[in-house]
Amino acid sequence: MLGACSHTHRCSLARAADVLELRPICEHCATDLPPESPAAMICSFECTFCASCVDDVLHGVCPNCGGNFSPRPIRPTTAWRGDNFLGRHPATTDRRHRPVDVTAQVAIVDRVRSARS
C-alpha cells in the first residue's frame, strides 16, 4: 500500500539512479533544455531531444531505440513533499550532443512504422 512506510513520502526513498537525469540539451541540435523546459521530449531510455527535432527530424521515432517520445516531466523546484525536488535531485550537467544521421533516421522511421502497421 502506498504510504505504508514510516517515511515522509514514498518517493523520498528514491536513489539518484531512480530519478530522471533531466539532460540539459537536445542530443541532435544542442538546444538548451533546462529542467523546466516544456520543449524537452524523452523516450523510455531518456534519450532527450527538443520538440522541434522530434517532429521535424526524428518524425516521432527515437534514433537510438526506435521507441516513441513523451514530454519530459518537470521536476518541482520546491520541496512540497520530503526531499523530492530539484534542489535535492538536480539535473545532470552531462551534455550529450550526438547529431542524428538524417538519412539513416529516415530508414529507421520507415522500418519502425512498417512494423507498427
The ordered H/E elements are EEHEH
Gross morphology: elongated
**What's the β-strand tally?**
3
Oligomer: single chain
Q: pLDDT under 50 segments (min length 5)?
A: 1-14
Beta-strand percentage range: 5-15%
The order of strands across the largest sheet is 2-1-3
Distance between the termini: 39 Å
In total, the number of domains comes to 1
The radius of gyration computed from the alpha-carbon positions, rounded to a whole number of angstroms, is 17 Å
Question: In which range does the helix fraction lie?
Answer: 10-25%
Assign the structural class, choosing from mainly alpha, mainly beta, alpha/beta, alpha+beta, or little secondary structure: alpha+beta
Total helical elements: 2
Whole-number average pLDDT? 88
What would you note in describing this structure?
With 117 residues, this protein is of the alpha+beta class. The protein has one domain (1-117). 18% of the residues lie in helices and 7% in strands. The protein starts with 39 loop residues before the first strand and ends with a helix.
Please specify the SSE layout and strand pairing.
Layout: E1 40-42, E2 48-50, H1 51-56, E3 70-71, H2 102-116
Antiparallel strand pairs: 1-2, 1-3
